DNA sequence: TGGAGTTGCTGAAAGGTTTCAAGACGATTG
DNA sequence: CAATCGTCTTGAAACCTTTCAGCAACTCCA
């Protein structure tokens, strides 16, 4: 523990206490204590209405006094169904995805299910490991914002019985539902806005290009240029290694290092974290935003508005995205006539100071 | 879907495809296909070194061709152990906790375990539900940043065999390890800094008071006043309903509404989200920060530095907190001589513009 | 060549729950 | 009073895996 002072004390005021062994009072012990059969205890647990109030009370008392905790593995093994949904997130540190997760939790709670969050952290290996794990756990279903939506693992899950809904990406392979925002349009909105303000040389900051969102937003940017009759070289691509604040700072360093004549006058970032990092670094290196560099982010996370220079950003309906995805998943796992769907929402440009009145 | 345009298409290019049934090729089917016994398949899975290369190859081929996926419920039921850790977070939308989670994941990965994240979202009922769920799942252990550390449920888990480590809170009941940062000291640092700058009337923004961190930081603030010989009324408490940006904005509204003469000249917020909201609202209502109102946050999340006015904050070793907690948990569940510990880290004041050169 | 040791595989038991056909019991009806 | 019905409860089977004692075949050495 090198980078922080720490102090360690024994807990429990010195009363040494060994770790307790797992003492499982099972359904059997409860049955014995209550003087009923196994089946009855199970009924109390699963169909309380069929057991007489008296017996039920006895059983409940026995459960309480023994500290009975149902063994979910056994339940699931026998009953064959899990009451858990998982959301495998691209980056739990990005408020965009935690807002999506909130929408997921909302829909799950309404259906009486619980949500486990998993964080792939933009790492394909971790994503794969989590997918395997979740499949082995036989969760009700998986929501995922994938790193690579062509992964074979991703395609295999549904055919083996684990429904998968892709979030924040569209996918049309007939195996999944997907819920997304039109990222091409989003990119187009951002660049059209900058072009309208008179910017000619515009940087696109984003990466890696394995991430679909990064590519789509860039393609939208290109399309906006094309539509405006500008040459594609006007879009200068700065590729980053991830979609994080730190990478944004790195990009800012590179950008600020360019001679003013060759430096773009505006930057469009693939997400707000990059934009915030870029903004921070550029400001600290003496560039004025928006006068020297206009910046557009993407996602419109809560912090975009509170930034040093309030950030123009492309807004996505975050919670709605999550809620809709969860609802599709629930439909898929409960409705035998379920048909896969692709839902696409429309993004919206929110203009703030970081691009206001430039040039 | 009221607040966003959306478009829905069938997926799969119109090829209607029904949801697949769960077709479980089990260990039995694999054994039959490979011409070996159940036990051998299990050995391939769990102790590959004891089976001859030839048989192993046959079994692996059979597994691949049948798409075998091990049923984790059955495995766990029989083997009695889970390979999963859970971190029950207070607020997944707070970057502080996702950084802690990163530390947890790091330590877990090093030990070959996986982490499920759960979000209580500052809601005691959800916290209780998740604790029940995790206990039923028989996870290896639970890390938790509790809403109420005196909850009976929390105390019961360890005695029934699920180790629990409390994160970001100290607790001394002999049942848990805990890892925390000295929040009293943190509060003291913040207020001492403001006093040194000459502030007399200082607001404390935080709540609800059921959350331990909120109380400790306030107590630290009071202590600093006491030590400086100031009357306790100089600390004006603004109680919030949660530790969020939105609540911070609300507090800003209240604060800015006060007549200048009665308004505090500085505010210490129980966390950075509150501080960012407060900052944003005050600025938009025309207060200058730090001239009219100095602000100190808590946690030093990544966005504190990038805020409209870079935020003075009390820094905590976030990842280290998570990593240490996970390591204690792992020790508890693997080391029979484990003794509960309370680890306390020391916070550090990071001074930025939001308090610089005030008064 | 006989015995011991080794290697690799087998088969049955066990783990805690749910499910379901069937039984027990009392009440109601003809 | 017998027959029928309803309400509760029971006991055994089933879910899928791991574990472990035991067995077969082979090697090695005396």
UniProtKB/TrEMBL annotation, chains A, B:
It comes from the Bacteria. One of its GO terms (molecular function) is transcription cis-regulatory region binding. Keywords: DNA-binding, Transcription, Transcription regulation. Residues 1-22 are annotated as: Disordered. Residues 25-79 form the HTH lacI-type domain. Pfam families: LacI (PF00356), Peripla_BP_3 (PF13377). InterPro entries: HTH_LacI, LacI/GalR-like_sensor, Lambda_DNA-bd_dom_sf, Peripla_BP_I. The keyword DNA-binding applies. PROSITE patterns: HTH_LACI_2 (PS50932). The keyword Transcription applies. This is LacI family transcriptional regulator. It comes from Kribbella capetownensis.
